[in-house]
């Protein structure tokens, strides 16, 4: 069970990072890559926030006893 929780924590952190990037691209704060279709699109802001929240839940679940 410990290995599974470790994998869940790693996946959760990756989801938080990717979700944050998507949200910042959707808000047009991060303009990388410069020709991305995600820039300034609020759909990606919503998707990023949802992904980050799921990632936070996975990390919380992995850290719980």
TrEMBL record:
<feature type="transmembrane region" description="Helical">
    <location>
        <begin position="44"/>
        <end position="62"/>
    </location>
</feature>
<keyword id="KW-0812">Transmembrane</keyword>
<keyword id="KW-1133">Transmembrane helix</keyword>
<keyword id="KW-0472">Membrane</keyword>
<feature type="transmembrane region" description="Helical">
    <location>
        <begin position="7"/>
        <end position="24"/>
    </location>
</feature>
<protein>
    <submittedName>
        <fullName>Uncharacterized protein</fullName>
    </submittedName>
</protein>
């Amino acid at each position: 069970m410990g290995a599974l929780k470790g994998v869940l924590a790693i996946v959760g952190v990756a989801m938080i990072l990717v979700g944050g990037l998507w949200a910042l691209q959707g808000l047009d704060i991060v303009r990388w890559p410069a020709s991305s279709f995600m820039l300034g699109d609020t759909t990606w802001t919503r998707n990023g926030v949802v992904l980050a929240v799921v990632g936070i839940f996975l990390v919380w679940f992995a850290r719980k006893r």
